[in-house]
Amino acid sequence: xxxxxxxxxxxxxxxxxxxxxxxxxxxxxxxxxxxxxxxxxxxxxxxxxxxxxxxxxxxxxxxxxxxxxxxxxxxxxxxxxxxxxxxxxxxxxxxxxxxxxxxxxxxxxxxxxxxxxxxxxxxxxxxxxxxxxxxxxxxxxxxxxxxxxxxxxxxxxxxxxxxxxxxxxxxxxxxxxxxxxxxxxxxxxxxxxxxxxxxxxxxxxxxxxxxxxxxxxxxxxxxxxxxxxxxxxxxxxxxxxxxxxxxxxxxxxxxxxxxxxxxxxxxxxxxxxxxxxxxxxxxxxxxxxxxxxxxxxxxxxxxxxxxxxxxxxxxxxxxxxxxxxxxxxxxxxxxxxxxxxxxxxxxxxxxxxxxxxxxxxxxxxxxxxxxxxxxxxxxxxxxxxxxxxxxxxxxxxxxxxxxxxxxxxxxxxxxxxxxxxxxxxxxxxxxxxxxxxxx
Length: 439
Fold this sequence. Notes:
Blueprint: H1 10-27, H2 43-46, H3 72-87, H4 92-101, H5 103-108, H6 118-139, H7 157-160, H8 173-182, H9 197-208, H10 216-225, H11 233-241, H12 258-263, E1 267-270, E2 279-282, E3 285-288, E4 291-293, H13 297-311, H14 318-329, H15 333-341, E5 345-347, H16 352-362, H17 375-385, H18 389-400, H19 404-437
C-alpha cells in the first residue's frame, strides 16, 4: 500500500547496532601466539613484594617504558645507541628495517597486547636492544668506557644489574642476536668479538651473579647440554642453574628441617658441583649447592619463580622447587646457622632471621609444579628419619661425645663398668669354686 510505514522497530535496530559493534570488536582481536616468553608478574606474587619485580633505574622493552622514575636512563641508552652505530659499519636504517621485519614476532613474545604504535615500538626495541649489546661489550672492554656514566664515574652499573634480572624487563634473545650479527666491526680479527650474545651474557653472569659458577666454561657446558634454548637473560640463568637430572612426576612431600635432620643422624655437605639449584641425598648425606645470600638474591629467585609460574608449569620449575625445599629445610635461625657452619650458605645479609624470612616468603602465592624436581629427595629423607640406629648414634655423639673431656669421661666410665663386671664375674666364679670343693 502507498504511504505504508516500513520503519524498523527501535529495539531491532538497537540490536543490529550492538551486533555490528561486537562483530567489529571481535574481528579486531589479535591472534594468540604460543611464543610468549615475557610476562607481567601475576598479582598473587607481586603483592608479596612489589619492589622485587619493579625496575629502579632502567626500563628494557615496552612494559615499563615511559615511567617517570626511569626517564633519567633514556639519555644514557641513546648515547649507547650512538656509540654502537659508530662502532659498527651498519646504518641506522638497516637496524630499523631488521626490527620492523621482526615486529610481529617481537609483539607475540608479550602475551598482552602492546599499545605502542609500530614506529614507537620499533624505536623502543632498537634503543633498548643496542643498549644491552653495548653494555655487554663495555663489560668485556670491547667498547671504550672512558667518560661513561655507567661503568665510569659515578659507576651505576652495580645498581643497574638487578634491573636486568626482572621478568618484565627482558628482551628476546633472537632480536639481540639478529642485531649483533648485523655488525661488521673493525675488531673482527679478534676472537673475543666473535662471542655470541649468549656467551657474553654468560660472561656477565659469571662476573656478577651469586647464583652461578665463577667458571665461564662450566656455565657454557651447562647451556650446551640443555635441550632447551634460552628465551632471554632470565631464562638463561634458569638453564644454567637447572639440576642435571630428570624430573620425578608427583607432588612435593613433607621434609624435616635442618635441625631435625641432623638430630636424626643426617650429615650435611656442600655439593661438589659449582652451581645449580640442586639438592641430593644418599647414604645418610644431604648435599646442597652452595648459596651466597645477598641483597640481590631475593630479586633473582622471585623473578625466576615468577617466570616459571607463567612459562614452565608443565615442565620443570627448578628454581621454585628448590626454594620450596629450602623453605621446608630452613624453619629457624638455627637452621641457617647450621648451613653457614657447614659452608653451604654464605650469609652476606648477616642476620639469620632475614634468611629464614627470605626462604619462607618466596613460596607465598606459588603454585606447585606438576613435575616436582625433588620428590625422590623427600622420600629418601623421610625414610632415613624413620630409622632408629642413626638417631641413637647421633644422640650418643651430641650428649656424650660432644667435647674431648666428655668423651674421655664416657670412655673411663665404660672401662670402669667393664672392670666392675669382670670383678663381679671373677668373684662369683671364685665362690662357685669354693662351694664345688666343699668339706
